[in-house]
Amino acid sequence: MFEHLKGWFLERRRRKKLRLRDNEEGGEGDKVKVDGIFERARITALSAALAGTGAAWITTPIDVVKTRIMLAAGEEAKNRDSNANSLHNHATSRTTPGTTSRQTALFLTKQILKTEGIQGMFRGALLRSLWTAFGSGLYLGCYEGGRHYLEDRRRDRDEGGDVVMERERDWKGVKVGIGKSRSQGDVVRKSAWQD
């Protein structure tokens, strides 16, 4: 869903930029790319927020059941600890053989639907969706913006020739070895492997 939304928003933005450029120039142009760092980050953040909202809403019933199972297990452990302190409670609280006090997911789902209805299964869905939209949008938007920023810096540096090494470099002139440093003015001896 995220990739589909991102592709749709990028294509929509590209068409809008192409339409604006064609209106200014008065003719058909080449393919226009959406390449602004903040523009890409904003599109990615919006796509992630929408996809995250949908995913959080759909999975809320599973989270409700999981939370209820965890709460029941915590209550069971607390009751077991308090019953262990009392000899009378410990002797009278035994369950019959073959029964367990743990609740299964299916049993809890049926119980929630019976007592609270479908609204009980989606309890907290709005808050969960909003939180997921904020978190997903912020995380993936910052990631995409940072990735494009670093790619642009690398591309600019590569085109400028600052870091890229020449293909046909003469390595015989490179001074490597043991001795005083170049900053001290002396020539550094070559290592045996350089010869």
Would you write up a description of this structure?
The protein is mainly alpha-helical. The protein contains six helices and no strands. α2 crosses α6. Mean pLDDT is 77; it is low at 90-101. Keywords: Membrane, Mitochondrion, Mitochondrion inner membrane, Repeat, Transmembrane, Transmembrane helix, Transport. Solcar repeats lie at residues 39-149. Residues 77-101 are annotated as: Disordered. Belongs to the mitochondrial carrier (TC 2.A.29) family. It is a multi-pass membrane protein.
Arithmetic mean of pLDDT: 77
Number of strand elements: 0
Helix fraction bin? 55-70%
The dominant shape is: elongated
Q: Spans with pLDDT under 50 lasting ≥5 residues?
A: 90-101
Radius of gyration: 32 Å
- SSE series: HHHHHH
Strand content: under 5%
Distance between the termini: 59 Å
SSE blueprint:
Layout: H1 2-25, H2 37-85, H3 87-92, H4 105-115, H5 118-121, H6 125-160
Provide a compact summary of the structure:
The protein is 67% helix and 0% strand.
Task: Supply database-style keywords.
mainly alpha, transmembrane, single chain, transport, 195 residues
